[in-house]
Design brief:
Oligomer: single chain
CATH superfamily of the largest domain: Alkaline Phosphatase, subunit A
CATH class of the largest domain: Alpha Beta
CATH topology of the largest domain: Alkaline Phosphatase, subunit A
CATH architecture of the largest domain: 3-Layer(aba) Sandwich
Helix content: 25-40%
Shape: elongated
Number of strands: 17
Order of helices and strands: HEEHEHHEHEEHEEEHHHEEEEEEEHEH
Strand content: 15-25%
Number of helices: 11
Strand order of the largest sheet: 4-5-1-7-8-3-9-11-10-13-16-14-15
Distance between the termini: 103 Å
Radius of gyration: 26 Å
Length: 387
């Protein structure tokens, strides 16, 4: 009896401490690397152009991938769903209801999960919601803003090749980012496997695009998935990839010169991933223009041979495989530099341009201006003239 009273007294005194500490610990775990995932796959009832205006608004919230493909059937069967289920996700498809009712249910579910996770400290199994239904442009415009505000990793994949896929994840995925990279289902499998902490399937030769989406870490060039048959060797070729970041709000003095060590504290004005090597076509960097103030350019690509000629007053730092190899600060005269390697190497280049300098015209080793070719006489006569 005395032991029982003693245990009760100890619980009354120490119990609140355990109850207070436990939710904090669980909340810390729940706030980690297993977010709820929303796969939104609207099926169109009107021409794709009628949805473009609504989808353009979501482009400001995350990364836009116009050449990414992720159909509902691929997501569920051979795609990410088996990986998510192996990671303990509960898969919840919402079907056979109207879009408005589906969004209402989803909001209730996410609100309850958010409250129990962060206020009550209850750790829950992660959730993957698949929302796929026919939707008109008007209804999509009315319901999409609420869904895009959810505390979850969101894959907005219209079931139409003419419309881009958008990835939104608050405070993790770069907003207003645009990438020309083409992505297959295998890349999404590898990406979500990395997010939930699992290795990608061994038979997949795909690469995770999480560094591309979050801007954290080095993005490996996307490899083609492994194929069977005579085309297998050709599929192993690594596609070129160049990242271009522009900075228009730079501190004084600029922290990147000459040691190139502090890029993490600033966010770029624009961030592009281009499936080409240098020099890039002007069409990829159409937003690069003359600025009233100084602007910075960060280029990361893979090269084995490169020659540059810097105009006067252009500062530059270059790293190869992470090691600084060249640096110049506001030279009074043009400066040239060249490097050659036996094998392609990861090359990083940061340039600081003075005000009123056009990047495309001044840096031909990075950007090749497009020239309008005049049609030949035979082409001019063979094509019909339009009024």
């Amino acid at each position: 009896m005395k032991k029982t009273l003693l245990l009760c007294l100890m619980f009354c005194c120490l119990g609140p401490l355990f109850l207070e500490a436990s939710p904090l610990e669980m909340t810390g775990q729940a706030a980690g690397a297993r977010p709820d995932i929303l796969f939104l796959a609207p099926k169109l009832t009107a021409p794709p152009k009628d949805y473009s205006k609504t989808l353009a608004k979501t482009a400001k919230l995350g990364t836009v991938l116009p050449h990414a493909v992720l159909t509902e059937s691929a997501f569920c069967s051979m795609g990410p769903v088996p990986v998510l289920m192996a990671a303990g996700y509960r898969v919840l498809p919402i079907r056979d209801v109207t879009r408005e009712e589906a969004v209402s249910r989803l909001n209730e579910i996410l609100t309850l999960r958010y409250r129990t996770r962060y206020e009550d400290g209850i750790q829950q199994a992660p959730l993957c919601v698949i929302l796929s239904e026919e939707v008109t442009p008007k209804v999509l415009a009315e319901t999409l803003p609420t869904l895009m505000d959810a505390e979850a990793l969101i894959l907005l994949a219209p079931q139409e090749d003419a419309l881009p896929l958008t990835v939104v994840w608050k405070n993790r995925v770069w907003p207003t980012q645009y990438s020309e990279q083409s992505m297959r289902v295998e890349h999404w499998v590898a990406t979500l496997a990395e997010i939930v902490g699992l290795p990608p399937p061994a038979e997949s030769g795909a690469v995770s695009v999480l560094p591309l989406l979050t801007g954290s870490g080095y993005q490996r060039p996307l490899e083609q998935p492994l194929l069977l048959g005579p085309s297998a060797s050709a599929a192993q070729k690594v596609a070129p990839c160049t990242m271009v970041c522009t900075y228009t709000q730079l501190p004084e003095p600029c922290p990147w010169v000459p040691d190139f060590t502090d890029m993490s504290n600033l966010k770029p004005t624009e961030r592009l991933f281009v499936p080409e090597k240098l020099p890039l076509s002007e069409s990829y960097v159409s937003n690069l223009t003359t600025r009233n103030g100084p602007q910075g350019l960060y280029i990361r690509t893979v090269l084995s041979d490169w020659s540059i000629t810097l105009p006067a007053q252009v500062s530059c730092v270059i790293r190869v495989k992470g090691y600084p190899v060249f640096s110049v600060w506001r030279p009074e005269e043009p400066v040239s530099w060249h490097f050659t390697r036996m094998e392609p190497q990861v090359v990083e280049c940061f340039l600081l341009l003075p005000p009123e300098m056009d990047p495309i015209q001044s840096l031909p080793f990075l950007f090749k201006p497009e020239v309008d070719e005049e049609p030949s006489a035979s082409e001019a006569t063979s094509k019909p003239l339009t009024p």
